[in-house]
Amino acid sequence: MPFKVWLRYKVKNLPAVSRDHLHALVFSLFPPDVAQELHRQKEKPFCLLGYRLLEGELRLGLGLLKDELLSPLALQYYMGKASLMGEELVSIKPGGFQEEDAISYQALLELEPVKNLSIDFLSPTTFRKGPWDYPLPDPQTLFRSLYKKWQAFSPIAFPLKEEELLSGVYKHLYILAHRIRVEVEELSFGRLRGFVGNVSLGINNTEFSRHVHALLKFGEFAGAGRKTAMGFGVMRLRMEEASVPV
After folding, report:
1. How many helices (H) and strands (E) does the chain have?
2. Within 13 A of 225's CA, how many CA atoms are on the CB side?
3. Which tens digits make up the pLDDT trace of 166-195?
4. Residues 116, 202: contact at Cβ < 8 Å?
5. Which of 146, 153, 198, 244 is deepest in the core (most CB within 10 A)?
6. pLDDT digit string (tens) for 19-44?
7. Is the peptide bond before 31 cis (omega within 30 degrees of 0)?
8. Helix or strand (DSSP H, E) at 117
9. How far from 157 is each of 41, 152, 161, 213, CA to CA, in Å?
């Protein structure tokens, strides 16, 4: 079952935080044996959904894609063992560990059909094409990414095979409008280019729209594209009234 959780910590003299620092922090939020297993996995079963640093408090959001991650995360939080850039993070108790949202994989598959959907890409989102970043909201690339994450972590196989899904995307899904820009971030391993902004999609097939809805809602927990464990690819789904005949 995918979860969204927010963690709150008291901090003192924390300098500017990079995504590399946050990436390291996330692994420290789990017990050592769990963190080691997460490091070994090529596809990470979590997404860094965001962070806020204000008035001596760090707020960190995570999307968890496997049930078994919630308990060790909570245990480590209440044990108060976390640090960032050498600065001790003090868990805020009570109320500092908050489950914001959760939905089962089966419930995702039972979501209502839709005609139009709007996606806000809240952090730089990019895909890999050969050796290059591909910072465009190409529907087939987006849904291939979400499908692979679903198949990696859901105990319920997605109802369509990958080729069936991508064929449906080609036939039944189209971009109504978009307003995006490309941002470049410097990381320890080099630059990453990703797009942020809004993309509106239309779907002209009722049954196929259920699959679209399921994967995009899943994307709110999983993120899309590359480096979601570092906070890239964060997305938010919004419903829209149909603006064109479908």
Report:
1. 7, 13
2. 31
3. 999 999 999 999 999 999 988 878 889 999
4. yes
5. 146
6. 888 888 888 899 989 999 998 888 89
7. no
8. strand 116-125
9. 19, 9, 9, 16
